Write the structure tokens for this entry.
Amino acid sequence: MPLRLHAGAVVTPPGAPYEPNQTVLRYHRDLVELFGGKLDEDLLRAGAQASHTLMADLLVKRLPAGDVRPDLVVLAAALPDLNPVRSVSAYLGLLTGGRADQCFSVTEQGLGAAFTALRIGAAHERTGASSAFLLAVLEQTTLPAHDPVVHDGVPLRDSGVLLLFDSGTGFGEVSSVARLRDAALLGPRLTALTAGAPRPLVVAGPWTDPGALPSGVDCHRVPPGSYCTSVWTALAEHWTRWREEYDTLVLCDTDPRSGTAHVAVLGRGR
């Protein structure tokens, strides 16, 4: 049976005081200097200190009690965690029932990480390797060095999303996930996906070129302030209303670093 959306949760975590950890500082310094940068502890001190662990704790509490226990957990992130050596995906598996025998992270893909994670979950369901998939998309912005996406332009907010998928038919079935190396291809792809689609809604992230959005089709534009969590936050917040108004959701965004566009289609099976 296809993979379909079952539940969602969103959190914007509160800030926490800065607590320097010399081991982590040495790790950050070595990593930043490896790429020709310089550790900026003032940036670390000024950040919200919203770790992936903190977001995982808060998000799991927002899932419906006694819900489906995932057998696959994938964490997607565009920016590194405060503690880069902690396995938060395994921690999420423990928090959600301990049934998952595969817990891992997808990183180093910018905002495409969450789209890749969804593709992985759908593939596991198709091959019978998973029947309950938990997708975590986490974004914390306390970084050890200047980053143009985080520190230039509209400030990013720390945010986290959990999306729980199971096997079955109905609204929120994962139809396709695609990566477009050239963002210029996004407009034609969106037009093709929505032409003739039953009651479509395009959910466009803040990095999407407005000119790529098809005319005559309902569109929900996610406001600036997020990098990889944008369309997933909107999906978790609005999907119970959207399932009454639409049959096809087309999620899309374009990574500001690479110019690569990503598209995911969720439909309604019969």
Q: What stands out?
A: The CA atoms of residues 52 and 166 lie 24 Å apart.
